[in-house]
Amino acid sequence: MSKLPARIRLADAAFALFDERGYEQTTVDDIAERAGLGRTTFFRNYRSKEDVIFPDHDRLLALIRDRLATSSHSTALVAVSDAVRLVLLHYVDEGDLARRRYALTSKVAALRDREIASVGRYQRLFREFIADWMGGPTESASLRAELMAAAVVAAHNHVLRRWLRGESSDPVAEVDEAMREVLALFRAPGSSPEPGAGTTVVAFRTGQDLDALLPSLRRLVEDGAEH
User: Fold this and answer.
1) Within 13 Å and on the Cβ side, how many CA atoms surround 160?
2) Is 156 within 8 Å of 178 (Cβ atoms)?
3) CA–CA distance, 115 with 109 (Å, rounded to integer)
4) CA distance 117 to 73
5) What is residue 194's DSSP assignment?
6) ∠ CA 67-179-102 to the nearest 5 degrees?
7) Nearest CA-CA partner of 81 in 224, 161, 186, 162
């Protein structure tokens, strides 16, 4: 254990204590002591015990932003799919740590609320990128960008939850398929569906149709918030 980086030692100690004593009953001092480290080392690695639980969202958001920035107008949707896959792979690479986090956030309301707020940051980043891709700051384009971003995040969360619960043996293949289904609902601004292409394109008739769908998509995203 002593050969492991301090950050990992602290995380292992924290989750062990959360399992033994409960989240609320565990202090920063408890975590540092269990890891065989001091308070100073703890705060050099984490700002609070809550930060031990969650992944580095700032780093993940930066990775997404970098991937989206490399795209052109014609490859924008490919970049969105790649960015979603990057986030999923981060959780898969975490392995048991991601599953322990999922179990904990499912039980502690305050942590669940924080994770929902984090999900909102991802959705906002996708929404801004998609709105720019659609062009024209019209009310219709803005609403379509909101819907598409919500669908992208909901698809990722659905696949991630399946993997966290042990229901998916190939989450990467599942998220790629989920993204194909999501992106088939949208098309590039000004384009029209190709005859016989086999792609389903949903044409929303009015702004009222979009308004009616948005609350449902938001609930789906929030219900799946552990990502």
Assistant:
1) 29
2) yes
3) 10
4) 29
5) P
6) 85
7) 186
Instruction: Output the six-digit token pair for 202.
Output: 């949903």
Helix (H/G/I), strand (E/B), else coil: 3 = coil
* 104 contacts 15 by C-beta, under 8 angstroms: yes
Tokens of 216: 């449902």
What pTM does this model have? 0.78
Burial 146-173 (b: 16+ CB within 10 A, else e): bbbbbbbbbbbbbbbbbbbeeebeebee
pLDDT truncated to tens, each residue of the chain (227 aa)? 447 899 889 999 999 999 999 999 999 999 999 999 999 999 999 999 999 998 889 999 999 999 999 999 999 999 999 999 999 999 999 999 899 999 999 889 889 998 999 999 999 999 999 999 988 678 788 888 999 999 999 999 999 999 999 999 999 999 999 999 998 887 655 555 443 333 333 333 344 444 555 554 555 445 555 44
- The CA distance from 29 to 59, in Å, is 27
